[in-house]
Amino acid sequence: MSHQLDDQLAAVSRAQHDESGFPSAYFFAPMSNPPSGGTAPVAARPPAADLGPGPAPESNAWTGAEKAVFRFAFLYFFLQVVPLDWKFYRDIVAHWAGVSLGDLFRLTHYTPRFFDGPDTFANWTVVAAIAAVGTVGWGAVDRNRAEYNTLYYWLRVLVRYRLAAALLGYGFLKLFPMQAPLPSLSHLNTHYGDLSDWKIFALSLGIVPSYQSFLGLVEILGAALLLGRRTASTGAFLVLTFLGNVFLSNLAYEGGEYVYSCYLITLGLLVLWYDLARLNRLLTLELPTRPNHFRLVLPAGWPRAGQRVAKAAFVLLFVGLYGVKAYAAYQQGTYHYPTAPGLPGAAGLYNVREFRLAGEVRPYSATDPERWQDVVLEHWATLSVRSNQPVALDPSNTETIPALDTERSFEYAGAAGRHYYGYTLAPDGQTLTLRNRNPHENRRPLVLRLGRPDARTITLTGHDEQGRALYVVLEKRNKKYLLEEASKTGRRGGLRL
């Protein structure tokens, strides 16, 4: 009899689970008639369902190791995120009356610097050293603290908004495709081997503005998700996949923003870390997971109102004002090239039909370092000369938004084979003053007499940097460019060059 009763109880236990192994929502104890036949039916009590290891019990106390790691992380990221350099605030006050797109971009691009020159990981080392020293002192005076949940919350807020500002800074430059501009005429007439890896990447991105806008939209979407507490981890995951590609692109093409992109990756990892263990337990291990119950409730009054005002000010500054200024700059043209207009109707590629130096006619030669091979006149006031004379390569490859034409280096940075001159035309309309744009080439200005005997011919008369007599005859070529011709016919139209 006892064996029969055990079999019935085992059947009850199996019946309480559905086919997936989870406890069934409905279960009933079977009615059994024991062999004696005189006793009442027995209702079996269902045993507890075996779901495997449940979520760990909540504990507010942190271990000593957790508190030490947090103290270091808090100080490290606080120093990385919050500007403590007084010159940063001096520049804000100095430019606030006429704040420009470049001023706002510099706000979003801040990182602490302890050394001159381009940003390097050496600056991180200094920050880590300061944080390590601070961790030791903090631990000595606050060793009895049970947890740092509130400080952890505020650290995530700082990092979330700092990362969102950086993404908005670059996102709007891509949404209105300006970060990577279309190639200039000089670029289109530069040998492929004369361009640096970074320059090739930038120009390749510039010829697909719609894709560039899509990348900007991804950055802006990630920033918007980071602004919400509930969507911050989702935004961090999206941003990390994007920034990982940016970091690898900088390494592969020798870009100058690999340190900054790695900096943003560390911020994204900190934001995601808060929910990473829970996500791993729920999605990877497929175990019951306890949700996050911590929520900071500010007292009513000015603290809660101040929080709303701060968030509204952030959105107004980095979404409203910055977005409007980015669109206005896009309408005016890219900030990478000079804005001063060039000679009317002169833009194009020119063959050097005649070249005289010190009264001597120099025939065309690909090896003569002094003889001009061809000349490009841009739509703006830039004249570039291709010759065999070595070019002092400008290594600038970081993102800036310069206000003055003389500070705009994109056209000659990372490009060899051509010498770039900015020019001004005297009021008489016949005197050109050429100044080398490349600061690494210290050359005297050229003052040349301009002649335009017909619409396709330009003559230049004067003296070169060494004072020798110079006479050049330029003849315009009727050259077609694939980018321009394809834009006229569309993607599916016929094309003949």
How would you characterize this protein structure?
With 497 residues, this protein is α+β, with helices and mostly antiparallel strands. The protein is built from 13 helices and 9 strands. It has helices at residues 2-15, 64-81, 86-95, 101-108, 121-141, 149-175, 185-188, 197-206, 209-226, 232-252, 258-284, 302-332, 482-489; strands spanning 348-357, 360-361, 374-377, 382-386, 418-425, 431-436, 446-454, 457-463, 469-476. It has an 8-stranded antiparallel β-barrel with strand order 1-3-4-5-6-7-8-9. A hairpin with a 2-residue loop joins strand 1 and strand 2 (360-361). Helix 4 (101-108) packs across helix 12. It is elongated. It starts with a helix and ends in an 8-residue tail after the last helix. Residues 1-6 and 8-51 have low confidence and may be disordered.
Largest sheet: 8 strands, antiparallel, barrel
Beta content comes to 5-15%
Mean pLDDT: 86
Topology as H/E string?
Answer: HHHHHHHHHHHHEEEEEEEEEH
- Over all CA atoms, what is the radius of gyration? 34 Å
Looking at the structure, what is the overall shape?
A: elongated
The span between the termini is 98 Å
Q: Can you tell me the residue ranges where pLDDT is under 50 for at least 5 consecutive residues? A: 1-6, 8-51
Question: What is the strand tally?
Answer: 9
Structural class: alpha+beta
Indicate the percent of residues in helices: 40-55%
The number of helical segments is 13
Query: Largest beta sheet: what is the strand line-up?
Result: 1-3-4-5-6-7-8-9
Region (Disordered): 37-57
Protein name: DoxX family protein
Keywords: Membrane, Transmembrane, Transmembrane helix
Biased composition (Low complexity): 43-53
